[in-house]
Amino acid sequence: MHIKVLILNLLSIILLILCIVANSEDSNITNYPIKASTKDLNPGIKLNAKNLSADNTNYILSTSNKRGIIYNIAGEEHLNKLVKDHEFVLTGFIVPWCGMSKKAISQLQEVIYKLSEYKISEINIHIEPIVGLVDISKYTGLSEKMNVSDYPDIKLISLKKNDTYRIYDYNGPINSEKIFTWMHKKITYLKSHFIVKLNSINDITQLLSLHPLACIYIPPRVKNEKEFITFRNVAKITDDVIFAQITTSENEVIENRNKSNLNVTLLTVSREDILKKFNIESKADSSVFILFKPFENRQSILNGPIINEKELIDFIDDEKLPYTLLLTSRTVGEIFSGKRAVLIGFFRGHTGSLDDKPLQYKPSSIPSKVRAIFLDTAKRVGKSILFVISGNERPIERRVMDYFHISDNELPIIKYIEDLNISPPKIYQLNIKTTPVHVNYKIDHSSSVEDEDNTELVIYDNTVIHLSSSILTNFIKDIQIGNIYHSSLSQKVPVEQSNPVYIVVGKTFESIVHDSNKDVLVLFYTPWCGHCKAFGPIYTEVANIVSSKHHIRISKIDMSANDVPDHLIGEPIVGFPSIRLYTKKRKHKPLIYDGEREVSALLDFIWIHTARDEL
């Protein structure tokens, strides 16, 4: 499948947040303890001095209640020793000056903190991995041997019986929880055949404290080996959920067989105790599958026996999805993944804590009534639409507002993105009615009343907002029956074009680029792209030289702020910067420039292909 320009646009939001720490001094993100340094990883990485003490060449991380070590891996011999001593080494391949690498180190630090709190041996994985860093600018040979193609690159490394490396590549987002879950699943696969084995209720609560998205299997009184194998097969193909099994004193031990390699420990805890602990009703002869989740409905139940893998997969896929999410740097990837349509409400203030525990709101933040309305609407509509609430204070919230071209004076506002897998996406807008509150009016920031139309009036920030579940539901219905027309992202059309590089926006792409009277060179770029920034002066110089040729237009378009239909672009854009020449005769099949990013090379490309058309 071709990579859509839209996906690049959406990923740019995520990448911007990851890069902002390195490129913006006024960022108010506070969870990045990695600063510039001059030692060990030259030009190096140093942790905040308050949290750092030296142990030879390693970094000992500690806070008031957390402690762990990042091993500074000095070459292959050092790595080999660490793997032999500890069996598993979660390794980050980084370059110290890279903002993304700093982000990776920060998240690996959080993984260490989790490991320090989590005794893996207590849940029957008798191994504790360690975390290390490799500076690929110093140890290029080791990086090549580990097949490092980019940075940062995170891998789980162990040794096979013949002392060759077994390498597992992490391909997910740079997020400590995602990394930890992925690592745990890999180790579980190697040590326990995909299933974490739980010996007590305490093991269950411990597992859930570190893996809040987990599927736990409680077998029936009489063993069902076929059902267990089905459960294990689903665990093999599901990446984002931890799978665990508990057995009870009433359940027979499934003996260790060479063919199936099943080995389940007999427990002393009773089945009734477990069901009572989690308020589950089940027949004595039935198995139970509990999906624990870190959002509104904390657990979902599937009573067995299950017939096939599809039944369990469908249950997990449906129930693991939340009805609502708060927009944070941790959730932005899920929100814009393209799995569901998205309805996102932007409000003044902040959304509370970063997790989904009961939120405590300050008077200036978004009242809990807003989330209650969103949740009620989501339950009515179903999980085909993801409902999202955003404030306007955090960096990620500002970035997404910029992406949708939303200013503070437009808040509150609702955006509905129908299908994230088409380019450009269809975006619909709902402007929420507001009424200023009189200065002498006594405000209850969490209150709501109803007007004459039974519309709830949510009062906060000296403002009454007219919002209800029926308003949101009717908005969605109007979209579905075609009563509301969609719009695409586009910057404002420039009033004048005074620079040698012509500015193209979404609304003007077809009229400017597909002008049959001109050969048009287009630079597709994004502001967050370092290569784009470096190429900017070169491109401007080319534009100055070509400016006397009236049949040629040198232009550029910011693809993080404008949507252009695929059929107008031509072949899908797979990276930035991308340069294409739309000659008079090739508007739908532009020439893609893949030469050196130099003035002379680009000029040769232009002269050759435009001169031919002029003859």
From TrEMBL:
<protein>
    <submittedName>
        <fullName>Thioredoxin family protein</fullName>
    </submittedName>
</protein>
<dbReference type="InterPro" id="IPR036249">
    <property type="entry name" value="Thioredoxin-like_sf"/>
</dbReference>
<dbReference type="InterPro" id="IPR013766">
    <property type="entry name" value="Thioredoxin_domain"/>
</dbReference>
<dbReference type="InterPro" id="IPR017937">
    <property type="entry name" value="Thioredoxin_CS"/>
</dbReference>
<dbReference type="Pfam" id="PF00085">
    <property type="entry name" value="Thioredoxin"/>
</dbReference>
<dbReference type="GO" id="GO:0006457">
    <property type="term" value="P:protein folding"/>
</dbReference>
<keyword id="KW-0732">Signal</keyword>
<dbReference type="Pfam" id="PF13848">
    <property type="entry name" value="Thioredoxin_6"/>
</dbReference>
<dbReference type="GO" id="GO:0034976">
    <property type="term" value="P:response to endoplasmic reticulum stress"/>
</dbReference>
<dbReference type="GO" id="GO:0005783">
    <property type="term" value="C:endoplasmic reticulum"/>
</dbReference>
<comment type="similarity">
    <text>Belongs to the protein disulfide isomerase family.</text>
</comment>
<feature type="signal peptide">
    <location>
        <begin position="1"/>
        <end position="24"/>
    </location>
</feature>
<dbReference type="GO" id="GO:0003756">
    <property type="term" value="F:protein disulfide isomerase activity"/>
</dbReference>
<feature type="domain" description="Thioredoxin">
    <location>
        <begin position="487"/>
        <end position="611"/>
    </location>
</feature>
